[in-house]
Specification:
It is a single chain. This protein is of the alpha/beta class and 252 residues long. 39% of the residues lie in helices and 15% in strands. The protein contains seven helices and seven strands.
């Protein structure tokens, strides 16, 4: 796909840009003449090279803890104030508050997981839709286990991501008259810091998990990035309301 996969002067907000999937997206996005907002929570040191002058894009960093609906609304409003509006929203943010069984999760941990992984993406997307005056595209992040009840030690995360899929279908229906396409991605087992740090998997757990994948390998961030590129590109003008797996045949 060419570097002009999205229209010049597009205004793109990448939420969760410091994730491994987000870091893979940035160079290609930055190679286009667009206004690019990079949201992060605590990893600003990952971004300096993306602000160099040789990129044709105009780049601005936005630091915010998306632990409330209000913070999510503010993030989109601040981006729109800087960029003059929004055309594309890519939401990659997410967390698992604590690795624990569904029997032991506390109300506070449950509420935080659902806020960050479900409520915040909804308010990001809704605020963006209200600001998209010339059509637009939204990509939200689900997970492959969302349709299977989540994992035994990350149950709230799975429940939240199942909510993302309902949000995706609902917003796609409601936003279609404005020519706004809303889709979600269901990554399977992708080699990222999320699985080793947030999900608390040991090296033995990771090796066992890889063996269970029909293709016999873990996915790469690039596998997810390519689908995101397609969904936000000019090649996609009719796909909306879909939750698309990137799993290597997992959960079949």
């Amino acid at each position: 796909m060419e570097n002009n996969f999205i229209a010049p002067e597009s205004r793109v907000l990448l939420v969760g840009a410091s994730s491994d999937i987000g870091l893979g997206l940035i160079p290609r996005l930055a190679s286009a003449p667009i206004s690019l907002g990079l949201h992060f929570f605590s990893s600003e040191n990952l971004f300096p090279s993306y602000q160099e002058e040789h990129f044709p894009s105009k780049i601005q960093l936005f630091q915010k803890n998306l632990d409330s609906a209000e913070a999510s609304i503010q993030l989109v409003e601040e981006f729109c104030q800087w960029a003059g509006g929004i055309d594309i929203l890519i939401q990659l943010s997410g967390t698992i508050t604590k690795i624990t069984s569904w029997q032991e999760i506390t109300p506070q941990e449950w509420d935080r997981d659902l806020t960050i992984n479900c409520s915040s993406p909804f308010f990001l997307a809704r605020t963006a839709i209200n600001q998209m005056t010339r059509g637009g595209k939204i990509v939200l992040m689900s997970t492959a286990s969302a349709t299977h009840g989540g994992g035994p030690t990350s149950f709230a995360y799975g429940v939240a991501k199942a909510g993302i899929e309902a949000i995706t279908r609902g917003l796609a229906k409601f936003a279609a008259p404005k020519n706004i396409l809303v889709n979600a991605i269901r990554p399977g087992f992708i080699k990222t810091r999320f699985h080793s740090e947030k999900a608390g998997k040991s090296s033995e757990d990771l090796q066992k998990r890889v063996k269970s994948i029909p293709l016999g390998r873990e996915g790469k961030p690039k596998d997810v990035d390519e689908l995101i590129f397609f969904l936000i590109s000019s090649a996609n003008e009719f796909i909306t309301g879909e939750c698309i797996g990137v799993t290597g045949g997992d959960f079949l």
